[in-house]
Amino acid sequence: MSGATLACVTWRKSSHSGGNGNCVEVASPADELVAVRDSKTPGKAVVIVGRVEWVAYLGAVKRGDLR
């Protein structure tokens, strides 16, 4: 995935995020992919995961399985 592709996507963060910049932002650069980055350093590393894996991860977080 190119930096140009990621520059054109719309990044989102939770409405529960505070104003201190400690947030994770997500975007969908392609139908089956989710991009994740740190809002404090948006020009740095981006993690790309499959949509199925992202949905499974969010489900585990919501259920408290990762504690």
Automatic annotation (TrEMBL):
It holds the Pfam family DUF397. Residues 10-62 form the DUF397 domain. InterPro entries: DUF397. This is DUF397 domain-containing protein.
